[in-house]
Amino acid sequence: MMWHHRLGHMFKQGLKVLMERNLLPGLKEVSLTFCEHCVISKQHKLKFARVTTKGKHILDLIHFNVWESLEISMEGAKYFVSFIDDYSRRLWVYPIKTKSSVFSQFKEFKAQVELETGRKIKCLRTDNGGEYVDGEFLAFCKQEGIVRQFSVPHTPQQNGVAERMNRTLLERIRAMLRIVETLMEMWKGKLVDYFSLHLFGCPVYVMYNSQERTKLDPKSRKCIFLGYADNVKGYRLWDPTAHKVIVSRNVVFAENELQNEQTNNSTTTSIIIMHIQD
């Protein structure tokens, strides 16, 4: 141990190399015992084993996380709650205004997916945030027979699926904002219909309601496509004139118009007319 101390707490293999070259007088064998100074000064985090097992059925395990957005949405949401089914990797994301809404959002999500699939959530994996360990939340899970799994504090790797999804969401949002894909086959057992998928941010022409115009007024105005409305058969659109989000089904998509603006190498715009079936 003396040469270990003299050489600034050199590691065992280094001492062996010097000993074999006869550079350390009197040292015939390298045998290092426990060195508290080395542990205190050199300790590193333990490596994480790669997880190769997954849930055997949908809803066997749900990864659950809350992350704070850098921007407040137009409807005042500052946080996003994400749920990921471990088996199918299907993702649900809900905007919320405060962390106190996490419990109620989970109950809403639970009711939705259990009714849709006919199965029960068996296990819920989260970190140790206060919104997850609330007494009412824990009591509800116990009553519903949901097993809770928590990661060690300051160890996001143990909730890696949810943490990695946060990164993926942010990367996709950045890409979408600079100018959508789902994993539904395993969930519903059939191929995904991509027919109604459109470019985020592309121009759309929205038809005015008859009450909004006279016979000689234009029949439509130009808006921006944001996504798909919940619980109604319509599209969510941004009206730059009225400065608000509207929902309509009578729209004409001009996706190529957005692409042409980026490439500057096309002179015509292909108009795709889409209507949602009644």
Shape: elongated
- The CATH architecture name of the largest domain reads 2-Layer Sandwich
Number of helices: 8
How many beta strands in the DSSP annotation? 11
pLDDT averaged over residues: 77
Q: Helix- and strand-based class?
A: alpha+beta
Strand content: 15-25%
Number of domains: 3
Q: Report the helical percentage.
A: 25-40%
Q: How many whole angstroms does the radius of gyration measure?
A: 29 Å
| SSE succession | HHHEEEHEHEHHEEEEEHE
The biggest sheet, with number of strands, parallel, antiparallel or mixed sense and barrel status, is: 6 strands, antiparallel
End-to-end distance: 82 Å
- The strand line-up of the biggest sheet is 9-8-7-6-10-11
Organism: Mucuna pruriens (Velvet bean)
Pfam families: gag_pre-integrs, rve, SH3_retrovirus
Domain Integrase catalytic: 49-229
Protein name: Integrase catalytic domain-containing protein
Compile the SSE list and pairings.
Layout: H1 2-6, H2 12-20, H3 36-42, E1 62-68, E2 79-85, E3 91-96, H4 102-117, E4 123-126, H5 135-144, E5 147-150, H6 160-177, H7 185-188, E6 203-207, E7 220-228, E8 235-239, E9 244-248, E10 250-253, H8 255-263, E11 272-275
Parallel strand pairs: 1-4, 4-5
Antiparallel strand pairs: 1-2, 2-3, 6-7, 6-10, 7-8, 8-9, 10-11
Folded structure, characterized:
- This protein is an alpha+beta fold and 278 residues long.
- The protein folds into three domains: 1-45, no CATH class; 62-172, Nucleotidyltransferase, domain 5 (2-Layer Sandwich); 202-259.
- It contains eight helices and eleven strands.
- It has helices at residues 2-6, 12-20, 36-42, 102-117, 135-144, 160-177, 185-188, 255-263, and strands spanning 62-68, 79-85, 91-96, 123-126, 147-150, 203-207, 220-228, 235-239, 244-248, 250-253, 272-275.
- A six-stranded antiparallel beta sheet has the order 9-8-7-6-10-11. A five-stranded mixed beta sheet has the order 3-2-1-4-5, with helices on both faces.
- α5 (135-144) links the parallel β4 (123-126) and β5 (147-150).
